[in-house]
Amino acid sequence: MEINALQAALLGLFACLSSMPGLGGTTFGNYTLGRPLVAGLVVGLILGDVQSGIIIGAAIQVIYIALVTPGGTVSADVRAVSYIGIPLAICAVKGIGLDPATTQAQAMAAALGAAVGTLGTVLFYGTATMNLVWQHIGWKAVEKGDFGKLYLVDMGLPWISHILFSFLPTFIITMSGAGMVDVMKAYLPMDGITMKTLFTVGSLLPAVGVAILLKQVAKKAVDFITFLFGFTLAACLGLNLIASAIIGSFFAVINYKVIMAQNKRVVAGANAGDDEEDI
Amino acid sequence: MKKLSEKTLNKSFLSWFYGNLTCFSQEHMQTFGYLCAMLPIVEELYETKEQKKEAMQTYTAFFNTEPQIGALVVGMTAGLEEAKANGQPIDGEAINGIRAGLMGPLAGIGDSMIVGTLIPILLGIGLGLSGGGSPLGAIFYIIVWNLLMWFGMRFVYFKGYDLGGKAVEVLVGEQAQAIRDSIIMIGTIVIGAVAASWININTSLVLPGGAELQKTLNGIYPKMLSALTVMFCWWLMTKKNISPTMVMLLLVVIAFVGVLIGFFNPGLTY
Question: What total number of domains does chain A contain?
Fold first, then answer.
């Protein structure tokens, strides 16, 4: 599968829009276009194969389902995951001749996406560092009272950072990526240790994504009961995600009522205590 | 008595909605987004260049929080700046004190509720709708997420403007705490279902005597290896303080060893 210059340029443009300090803005850029599920649709449209795009994007999405960037520390770069990783994974899966819908193809996509995402943090730090130059121009403008320039500094000049650190890397890597598959096929046999490890890693990686998310909500082992409840709904009862969300909402409503009832009792108890002291 | 016009507030909100992180650097994360959002407010409230310069100076201080819920702070400062321009006893220092005090707590709430719970729930449902490569899931996520954030951010911005300092109560009160707790519960259950639907860890090991280990495990608890791997990763990150990247590298080692001893085998050929 080939990626032509126009397709690579479009991928580059979406990389500019979707990264963490991206030019699509936080809500529509980073948290919409940057999510691998959405990127799967976008990349699929660009490459002319929406079905493969979505399947691969969804497989990679599981790893990055809770990509929190507290205080600007980034462990994976979404522009790299979504607009370099997904196109490369589509090329690799098709080049090898796998059906995208198989768990093997999804494992391969996960492994590739995670590798590209981790290496891609370089792009994040590059963009953020270059933005220092524009901010310097901004401080001068504020000093002089030339406030109109602020918009240029905040929303215009960062395009230069992104052409260098989002557009060009995406353009170059995706253009040359298709050839990579032939090299892989020539030197890495599927029944060799390397490829077996790659596919196994891909099947293990989504567990990290889920664990990152759990880290925020589960502090003690007992908090896992809630997680395992959801897990059991899908694994043993075979419920889909929407059904699980509805059952989850039902228990959440009960939980809310219990907490509010407790709060009332505490208030009532506190008042009773005050009365006794008065006597 | 100066009163900010609806048009100016809208302009300020739009600047924040789009530009909160566009000029991010490690040194001044959301500071320039904040300056752009306050500019229309300052332009309307003050006459002379000197007054404007003095007012803008307040917002040159470092700012960083979860930007979506952070719209509340921008709205609050718009209200406080208006009060200041009307001669009420508030100065730039007081405004900055409130800003700095809210950054941390709001980042905590926003990261856990929006990025850590709302997004995974929406993505989880989106994944459920993507079966067989259907674009429905992605479209669902694009529409629902953007509508929620557009109206949600507008709501907290204008709530912040109306209530000023009292707006904090909306987010940290007892009832808000109970709602947060319950929403996190939905999130945890959904993520459990996501894990069961999307993680497929199987062993190819055959036990002495010819029984397949995978079948034995399925008999005990379906997808047991997937659940155990998640818990193992959680334990490494939470109890051993190992970074996600290091955990991923460790999994590469485990996969390699597992393949060598025949525990894992994807069983593929070209």
Answer: 2
Query: What does the pLDDT read at residue B165?
Result: 60
Q: Which amino acid is at A111?
A: A
B 176-215: CB under 8 A from A: 177-179, 181-202
Whether residue A61 is found in the same domain as residue A178: yes
Q: Quick one: A144 and A20 in the same domain? A: yes
- The per-residue pLDDT for B170 is 66
Does this complex have an ipTM over 0.90?
no
pTM across the whole model: 0.85
Highest mean pLDDT (candidates A202-216, A248-262, B169-183): A248-262
Residue span of the structural domain in which A233 resides: 221-279
Closest residue in A to B234 (Cα) is: A211
Query: Is the CB of residue B257 less than 8 Å away from at least one CB of chain A?
Result: no
Q: Return d(Cα B160, Cα B170) in angstroms, integer.
A: 10
Interface membership of B51 toward A (CB under 8 Å): no
Question: Looking at the structure, do residues A213 and A226 belong to the same domain, yes or no?
Answer: no
Among the partner-chain residues B124, B222, B258, the one whose CB lies closest to the CB of A200 is B258
Instruction: Mark A224-258 as b/e (b = at least 16 C-beta within 10 Å).
Output: bebbbbbbbbbbeeebbbeebbebbbebbeebbee
